[in-house]
Amino acid sequence: MKKIIELKNVSKAFDGETVLDNINLDIYDNEFLTLLGPSGCGKTTTLRLIGGFETPDQGDVIFMGEKINDVPPHKRNVNTVFQRYALFPHLNVFDNVAFPLKERGLPKAEIEEKVNEMLSLVALSSFAKRSVTKLSGGQQQRVAIARALVGQPKVLLLDEPLAALDLKLRKDMQQELKKIQKATGITFVFVTHDQEEALSMSDTVVVMSEGKIQQIGTPIDIYNEPENAFVADFIGESNILDGVMLEDYKVRFSGRTFKCVDFGFEKKESVDVVIRPEDVDIVPEQEDLLSGVVTSVTFMGVNYEIIVDIKGFKWMIQTTDFVDVDEHISLKIDPDAIHVMHKSEYSGLYGDYSSFSNEFDELEEIDESEDGE
Amino acid sequence: MTRKMQKWLLAPYSVWAFLFMIVPLIFVAYYALTDNDYNFTFENIRKFFVTTSSVTNDAGQVSEVHTYILIFLRSLKLAVISTIVCLLLGYPMAYIISQSSPRAQKIFITVIMIPMWMNFLIRTYAWMTILQDTGILNGFLGLLSLRPVHIIGTEGAVVIGMVYDYIPYMIMPIYSVLAKLDPKLTEAARDLGCNSVGVFKRVVLPLSLSGVVSGITMVLIPSISTFYISQKLGNGKFYLIGDAIEGQYVANNLHFAAAIALILMIILLAGMAVMQHFADIERKLEA
Amino acid sequence: MKVWSKIFTVLIMLFLFAPILILLVFSFNGSNSLSVFSEPSLFWYRELFKDSETLGSLRNTLILALSASVISTVLGTAAAVGINSLRNKFLKTAIDTTTNIPMVNPDIITGISLMLMFVFVGRLFGASSSLNFGTMLIAHITFCLPYVILQVIPKLKQMDKALPEAAMDLGCTPVGAFFKVVLPDIMPGVITGLLMAFTLSLDDFVISYFTVGNDFQTLPIRIYNMTKKTVTPKMYALATIIFFAILILLIFTNLSDEESDSTANARRAQRKSRRVENRRVISPKVYLSAAAAVLVVVIVLIAALGTGRDTLTLNVYNWGEYISDGSEDSLDTISAFEDWYLEEYGQKVKVNYTTFSSNEDMYSKIKSGAVSFDVIVPSDYMIARMKDEGLLLPLDFDNIPNYEYIDESFKDLYYDESNEYTVPYTYGVIGIIYNANKVDEADVTGWDVLWNEKYSGQILQFNNPRDAFGVAQYKLGLDVNDTDPVLWDRAFDELLAQRPLVKSYVMDEVYNMMESGEADIAVYYAGDYFTMLDAEAEDVDLRFYTPEFTNYFIDAMCIPSCCENKELAEIFINWMLSEEPAVANAEYICYACPNSIVYNSEEYIEDMGEEAIEVLYPGVENFSELYNRTAYKNLDQDALAYMNTLWENLKVN
Question: Of A175, A193, A224, which marks where a domain is finished?
Fold first, then answer.
């Protein structure tokens, strides 16, 4: 595969505050790449660097082998779909989509042809003459995509384009975006804070936090083999415990020793141990297993989400079996349910559900939709 | 446009503002603090505060007063009355406008703006025709066999002139704040148990305070310094601070005119600062 | 509630439009009065279109308002964009505070401060005239700017920051993005700012008053300077025309606004109905081209205004309404001179004719070096003062042969003993005008009638210190020129005693009040009595009485030391003495004329009527002796200051 964009040792600060810290990233042709992370992680800034709206303080932005640090946006073969679409309110749908073509001074007939083609791709052919302010959110979204694609850029940048849509529409648009990407063969760089969105759409996911890339990989890699506690916690639910790698395939945590599939650690290395809530089986209390008491049970539809207190550490476990609060139970953990990671700066920050509530998650999401630079 | 280019756009204005907004004020201070030969002196300022004249009241008693301080206080009094009347008439008007349909709002605003396009000297002249003892108003009252009223030459006439000229400046800012007010807020207040008066007192009024403050500023400032209205509608009997400045200018006492202007400016700026301060406090209290 | 608010609205509208209704009605008045309606007529509209000076000042007002609003809109919009992009807190606060200055400062202070600066700078560079069209334009732009900025900034704040980025992303240059996307988006704010600036500039009087130069008089200044003479219904006619022009304009823009507004209210509209969706949204191009058109008009007008290189300029500074201006089929003096000069000398001359409201007004303009003029028409005592201060140039009478027609009585007078500086223009007497239907003629025996308690509240006194004190001094038999403060105190006490009886201190208002019977006794200039006679109401019978001991005044043409073309000025003065203009002016002004051509002209005597001739030319024996004894002379600085202090005292009461 061909590299289209390379970020090399890129750093960026605003008002003395570091936003990007030595980023290295390769983006390949025809790839659907997602920048994923909480607000303030630097994902939007990364996108703006590629778009040309910001210049890096250090490092280089390379586009098809050429350094483009100081090339202004209008000279880059990259287009953006903005978070709130940024449709031009004084132009109608047709003129919005025709805007980049008119900028290039294409003949009228050609413009018309290309715009109509684009509008039919996004299923808006009958809306050409309508004012963009009179469209629904989903329709505006599609106009923005059509407008960004009509100039046939090498790369399309999408800055949380689905954040303003309601859940059902968002799901539909995810499908549609994926379809458009496949049909056009254009590289998509997609920014989101929604891990589900990232996992379901992307070829490659880049997890970012605090201006640094935490992990780059396929959605499956990212989920199954998180590199550190941050990634493990941010993608899906995780119980993250302090442990010691006794030797290859043998890890000790919670006062017990478990078999595992991980190897290549130093002897007696302190590690973080990740156990996904759905990988744990609940069994009646047994002497030779980890045991604890159930402190809360929440019905989630597909399953129950229960919190178990084991030696002061609160585990989250997803199960279809019903248990009662205050019931004493044991956990059965298979070796391949255990994922061992090196210690990192995030160790100890995540993975304990002692203060867990669903509400917190939602609050966080509201904050993130305000995502700034 | 890049931010750098945007900043350059500010350059011509910055130069302009410095040359024609700030420097002239320095000149006022300079003239105020110098004599006819441009030597430094406090004499002009002193003169403002110490000049006295004897005044005979209605009962025929004679008393000494500080001429310019009295003139200033009189201007202030008329300006404050005018501002209050403007507020009392302008606020309900602005409220009514803001409650009407968008189309009607546009028409209202246009209609209120129209008089401002006609020369204000001419409009003031027309008021003379209306208000004088043998004027239109008394003619009208006569038709209704009512007793004629004597208005021209009274404080009332001057206030009417000022209110007439400046009420659009009260209505506009209040209206623009009220128009932006989210109707859900009043609904919420009602939902939480407020009656109409309560909604107005506890939600609409506090939220429109910024409009009221700028309305008051925009009416008070010109009405305190007017000199034409008082001449025409006050029968030349109300000598206001604007008349004093103009009088000194015409008498070619530029330095003393500048001194009066400087003192007026300082008093007004101090007043504005205090008012802004209270408005801020009130807003915080309401919040 | 609903009903009350309707009633309230109607009352407010009535209040706002009552005066406009009045001037609308009176513009169709057949007579010369602003308070007595005689018969409907289009007379004043015809007059208006004959009055090149008024139309000229209207044109000036429009040029000024257009240029000021366009320039301040361009400058202000640019500034708003800049301010909006500022991140530096300190800089932002500094700019915001500065922008507020013209808004929280009374306009009188803005006007005075700019005037002081212009005059100071003008002096520094030795300019003959510091104030001109440019300074007035600067002043107007300055006070319009904040309003434009305050209209545009909120629009910029509301705008999605990503819009210009999107445009650049799609291939626009940064500048292109501004014009193609940002400007159309903030256009409503820009247009409102433009309209506000235009309105403010159009209506401004105070700031113009302080910064007006010799070459560019606007309508408000012209109206204000009519204070010695009357404001005619012609001005009402003009106001009425402006009113309808604006009404049509506003209806027109309102209609187009509504369409673009539908975008702003889109969401609401969307919910309400789907039918309006296909309505065309007015394109920003329309706005842009409108703005461009305005700019072109301004440039063309300014270009038209600018005089060519081979055109001479003559700046004449006269009292308001003190020259025959072409109304009522009279001679349009200024354009007649321009034509005559072109014919006689084969060269174009452009006369900038501007007016003042009082001697003192004129004096401070010239003394401060703010403006330069070639011909001025001050009164006697002011001539003496200006001569003493070296502000006048001696005339070359070889260029003014018509001086021989000036009556010998008007030569060798105190203010110009050796006849070097002046050519008398008009003269007159101050007398008592009274309504014989209300005032017992037996009471009118002298100045005492102005102190007669029988007529309390019916008396009009001068609203200028020199004349008002003069009346008291003549009454007391005092010398009006004695500087002894004790004597001035006596006159002051007399005026103070009169004050409760005085209905109003007046200048031009005297016309309305006497014509309509609003007041019964006034003291004013004899010539103006005839103007009032023409317009008196049915139940009013005005008479004139000349007290024995009173003021005779002479207004004379002079050339100030700031004159830039003395020979041309002298040619103008000489021409003014020739028959046609001299008679026309004497008839127009109604004051007595010292020019023998005029008072011997049969046409003049016939036109004025016998009564007028009798009152205007009382046939005083030994006029120059009487004049030198009673006329106002120049008071020294201390006496003037004392008089002004006393005057303020009187006003404070």
Answer: A224
